[in-house]
Each structure stands twice: as C-alpha cells, then as structure tokens.
Amino acid sequence: MTTSFHPPERCLMGPGPSDVNPRILEALSRPTIGHLDPAFIAMMDEVKSLLQYAFQTRNELTIPVSAPGSAGMETVFVNLLEPGDKVVICANGVFGGRMKENAERCGAVAVMVEDEWGATVDLDKVEQTLTENPDAKALAFVHAETSTGARSDAESLAALAAKFGCLVIVDAVTSLGGIELKVDDWGIDAIYSGTQKCLSCVPGLSPVSFSERAVEAIKARKSKVQSWFLDLNLVMGYWGAEAKRSYHHTAPVNSLYALHESLVILKEEGLEDAWARHALNHQAFAAGIEKLGLSFVVAEEYRLPQLNAVGFPDGVSDAAVRAALLEEFNLEIGAGLGALAGKVWRIGLMGYASNQTNVLNCLTALGAVLADQGMDCDAAAAVAAARAVYAGN
Amino acid sequence: MTTSFHPPERCLMGPGPSDVNPRILEALSRPTIGHLDPAFIAMMDEVKSLLQYAFQTRNELTIPVSAPGSAGMETVFVNLLEPGDKVVICANGVFGGRMKENAERCGAVAVMVEDEWGATVDLDKVEQTLTENPDAKALAFVHAETSTGARSDAESLAALAAKFGCLVIVDAVTSLGGIELKVDDWGIDAIYSGTQKCLSCVPGLSPVSFSERAVEAIKARKSKVQSWFLDLNLVMGYWGAEAKRSYHHTAPVNSLYALHESLVILKEEGLEDAWARHALNHQAFAAGIEKLGLSFVVAEEYRLPQLNAVGFPDGVSDAAVRAALLEEFNLEIGAGLGALAGKVWRIGLMGYASNQTNVLNCLTALGAVLADQGMDCDAAAAVAAARAVYAGN
C-alpha cells in the first residue's frame, strides 16, 4: 500500500524552485474557500495590487496566471500574436529558444537575434534587426536568463523597441524580486514571471502584467486566441476590475494564498532592500567561489546575483558532485541546461534562499566535495573571503 | 500595509472546490523540494500509479496536468485534434459548450448533439449523428455535468463510439472518485478530471489519462500541437517511463504532494466504498430536500450523487439565501450556471464533504433560511427524513 509522502528537507540553491519561506508554506495550508467567495475576491484584489508593486506598474491587467511560468510565457504570446505577425526574439539561452517555439505555434514569424550562451543580448544587433524588420509587431527578450545567469539590459532594449514602435515582451521569470525591474518606467508592454524563483513561493503560478497598449492589441484581435484557458478576454472576466467576477476556471485557491503571503513579505522588506540583499549575497558568494578556484560563465557586469552559472575544471564529475551535495548535505544545486549541460552548475541565491547562512554552508559543502574530486580547494579560505564581504558591508 | 490573509472557515458544498481533507492541507505544506529531486521523481511514479487506480486503467500516460481542469480539457483537445478534424460533441450543459470552444480553437469541426440542460445525453441522437458523420475522428461528452447535476451513460456512449471507430473523449472533472468510472473496461481513449471535486484536493491540477490508441494518434500528428505548455510529446519527456525525466516546465511540487495524499486516502477507502458513500449521502440529502418542498432538476435515474441541482419556488431570492447561508452558517452552496442561473442551487456532496454531518447541517441551515423567505419549511422533518435513510442503511 502506498503511504503518505514525506519529502526530505532540502536547501534549494538550484535554478528554482528556491527555498520557500515557512510563512508561505503555512499560508498555503489554510482552509480552502470558494473561488467566488467574497473573502477570496477581496484577497484577489490585494494580490493584484501587491503584484503591481512587485512589477512597479499601474497596469490594471496585472494578475497571476493559474499555471507555471511556461504558461505565463504562452499567455503573452497567444494573446498578443496572430498568424502572420512578425516578432523579433533575442536568444542567449534556453528561454529565448522557447519564445521562438511559442511564437511559431501561434502562426507568427520569429526573427531571431542570437547571442552566445552566457552573453548579454547585444543592443546593436537588436537595433540592426529592428531596422531590417520595420514591420515587426513586437520585440521579445529574457531579462534574466535562468539557463546561463546572464542579465540583459531590459531598459535599453525596451527603449529601442519603442523607437521602432514595437510592443515590448519581457521574460522576468527569474528577475522579479531579485534585481531592478520597472515595468512602467521602462515601457514594458507584456511581462511574465514565476512564483518559485525570487518570490520564494511554491511553483505553479505565473504573475503577468500587460500595458494598456497591449490590452488594446488583445481586444483588437481579428482571430480568437488559440487557447481557451489562457484567453485573457475571458480571464479578465474573472480577474478584471469592471467585471462581474464571472466564472472562467476554478482558481488555484491555496496557491494564491501562498502568492499573497510571498508578496506581503516582499513588500515588508521593500523591493530595493530585496534587490540589495540579492546583490550582497552574490558578492560574498562570488568571493568564495573564486577562492575555491571556480569560475563564472558570465562577465562580471552582466552576472545575475540570484543565479550563478559556475564552470568547473575538466576531470570533475558533474553528477558525482551534485549527488554528494544532495545526499550528504541535503543541498540542491542545478545542472547546466542545453548548450551548458555538463559544463556548469547553476547555483541559485533566490528570494528567501539568498542569505548568509546558505552562502557560507554552500561554500563549505562545495569545498569538501570538490576536494574529493581531487581539486586543491580551501573551503575555509572561501568561507573567510565571503565573511570578509559581509564584514565590509 | 496589506497583511497576511486568513480565510474564514467555510463548509464547501458548492460545485467545487469541495472541503479539503486536513490531511491533504498538511501534506500541501510540507517543505518544497526540487522537481528533479530523486525523492520527488519517486513520488511522481506513485502519483501515476495511484491515478491509474482512480481511473481504473493501465494507461501508461496517466498524469496530472500542471493546471486546473479547464487546462486538462484543453490538453485533450489540442493534442488529439488537428485542423480539419471532425469531432462529435454532446452538450447538455456548460461543459459540452466549452468542449466546442476548445475544438474550434484547434481548427477542428464540431458537430453538436444538443440535449436539454438537466437531461442525460440521448444515445439515439448520438448514434444518428455518428451515422451521418462517418468521418468523425472522436466522440466527446461530459460524464458528470457540473452545471446541471446530470449523469450520462459513459459506458454506452463509449461503446457507440467504438462501433463507429471514433476515439472516446470524456470529461470526468466531477465524476472521478464520486461515481463508477472504468476507463479501460469502458474503452475510453482520453479523459480529464479535476482535483477539487470528489478527490477533495486543492484546485489547480488536472489528472488525465490517454489510451495507447490516443498516444499513437498524438505521435502521428502532421502538425505541431498548438500549445507548447500542454504538448504531451514534450510533457511525456518529464513524466514518461522511458524518459530521462528531462525538464519541460517546473512542476507544481506542493500541489502534487496534496494530490498524492488525496489519492492515498482514496485508495485507503477503496473506490467502490467511496462511490457507495457518495450514493448514500445523496439519498439521505434527497429525502431531506423533498421534505423541505424543494425539487430536483434531474430525473432520479440520472442524478449525480455528488452534485445536486435543486430548484426553488418563485419568490425565493437566490442571492439572499446563498448570502445568509454563507454569512450565518459559513456554508457555501453554488449558484446556477448558464441556462440555469437564478433557477437552481448546486449543492455538492463531493469527496470529504460527502458526509452525514454536512447533510444534516445543510438541511437545517437551508430550512431556516427558506423559512425567512416565507416558505413553509419544516427543517426538523427534513433532518428526520435524512436520518431515517442513514438508520435504514
């Protein structure tokens, strides 16, 4: 007979899910109420306004999609693109490629701007491509590439798109709550994120936000949105302001309790303080990583503090290191993905998991396990280097 | 400053979500682990095999979709249908209509078999329509219409489809765990359900199952599935047997803990016992409802035990009754939907909420509130009638 499942207690320092704040787990387990209960509707309004704070936007259409970040991406593409539309997509990792898949499945034409994995999106190439494609409806790019740890300059990319009259589509799955992000100031038209990264919430929801211009584009569509579940014309009937809160689908009630709590926590800390905390823990971690003799994939100025892609020397067994960390230290770090598979580890310092204890424990564990692999590692020196960063702060 | 949300404690006797077993809420709040953690992968295998039990199938492709039941419906349609395909859809309530929307958004042609709201699907009309449409690829119908409380004869409908060589698509959102359902014995090719009905789990996931014949149809597609997120060719890479468990999207880890626990509870009770419990509580409830002077929308032989559509006399205020039940008794019942809006209440006795206490409390509360509305109700007699059913069992 199968019995109840009791997960091991891990420290989650991979590319997400990241450690969930116990306050959020507690909120998650509160009694379920109906998705049309007045008390629930009032909570939904709070979630919307907390999300507006997190995204730094006044966009009315700022809601969580009832499915993971990949569905948030799909929501943006299926609602904004129609067959024959052209979209310029920047790819410097896995998720730019996934955008292409999404756009093409909408019958749109994807014009790609490719950069190396680990590089930032090249603004000159984007400008060149937009110049060559004056009929492009949108420019789409990933703010924080989870597969490589590279940050792209969302503000400048959005400004470029504006110059060419394009809608601006941004993947902020890993950036929201971890690094500076200003939807209104930067002129972003459509953005999606995930709950399981820097919000430290459980996986399963995707916060999205759409500008008025994007909403007009959705309302002016000639064809129906190909997805019934993700059709914002229908979803707005449930989440919208003017709406009767009419039933569309059953909202994931308890997951929304959790998202609400995670956003309350973010607001208590303050966005700027959360960004500063991510930056500081990254600096301390990076000082230790270098002392261990490991290297970063991404050039310093483009590194994401919340996702560290760390290369390791030939001869070190990727799988053995990750297995030892998991089995002996209950510590999860991420494997490389796509072009970086087998070449890097992805070490997350996201949200609740971005803290001094995790930084120091991870350096200690990595040092011990890499020594087993024959590397000449001084874990104590790495920890000292990280502590010095904290002490100097 | 927005603070933590603490929901009221409701008794959920609407069309879903239904009351969640506290064991499931506790499982939901266990520490999050990675979606590629070996411990999690092992739990996924248990979820698959427990779902096979719940569906009574040996289908290898039996998994939960990472989104609510509506996305389960969409998963079935976008994977099985290609542009130009013809599908016969039976509509006797809201969800048959939603199937049509889904089919048409896939570019498929929907041939409708319409029945009255509250009626069961008419087998003769279906046979006639299949005879007239020998090129139909699939027959789709709703086993348990949540909008009306009517059961259709899934076994006979599936047999009819087989006679005409059609794939059989079944909506089992409200039937799974509440009434007899045998995927393999009945020859169902594609089926989807929800977690928030008779499984008494939190909303947000959709269990689905596909026969080998359906999987072959998916693998033989000429066009790509229009949804990247719901493309089973990709999802199978994460959930599949032979698979490397390759990353597709981040699974909703904690919701899957909850589903696992709900399925363990179902297996502990046993499917047949769960069906019998739903039947008994319905009989007791129905005896009380009739004593209150209310009537059922659905003819007795087609009534769903887990979803009671109850009509009320002219002059009774739908909204006032539901508001009083919610505010004074913390009891949620459902409003009518679509053609039955303002004409019926939908009173659920689903899963954990299908119990004697709820039946008796609901009759008491309804009796009190209906008396306020000027009805000549004897709540005590209704409770006595229900108790007599239990006593005679």
Question: Could you explain how this protein is built, in words?
Answer:
The structure is a homodimer of 393-residue chains. The N and C termini of chain A lie far apart (55 Å). Chain A has helices spanning 22-28, 38-55, 69-80, 94-105, 123-132, 154-163, 183-186, 212-219, 232-239, 253-269, 271-291, 318-329, 356-372, 379-392, and strands at residues 11-13, 61-65, 86-91, 109-114, 138-142, 144-145, 150-151, 167-171, 190-192, 206-210, 295-296, 307-311, 331-335, 344-348. In chain A, α11 (271-291) packs antiparallel against α14. Chain A is α/β, with parallel strands linked by helices. In chain A, β3 (86-91), α4 (94-105) and β4 (109-114) form a beta-alpha-beta unit. In chain A, the strands form three sheets. Chain A has a seven-stranded mixed beta sheet with strand order 2-10-9-8-5-3-4, with helices on both faces. The first copy, chain A, has a five-stranded mixed beta sheet with strand order 1-13-14-12-11. The model of chain A has no long low-confidence stretch (mean pLDDT 96). At the A-B interface, α1, α2, α3, α4 and α10 of A face α1, α2, α3, α4 and α10 of B.
Q: Sketch the topology of chain A as an H/E string, one letter per element.
A: EHHEHEHEHEEEHEHEEHHHHEEHEEHH
Number of domains of chain A: 2
Main beta sheet of chain A, described? 7 strands, mixed
Overall pLDDT of chain A: 96
Spans of chain A of at least 5 consecutive residues whose pLDDT stays below 50 are none
Q: Find the structural class of chain A using helix and strand composition.
A: alpha/beta
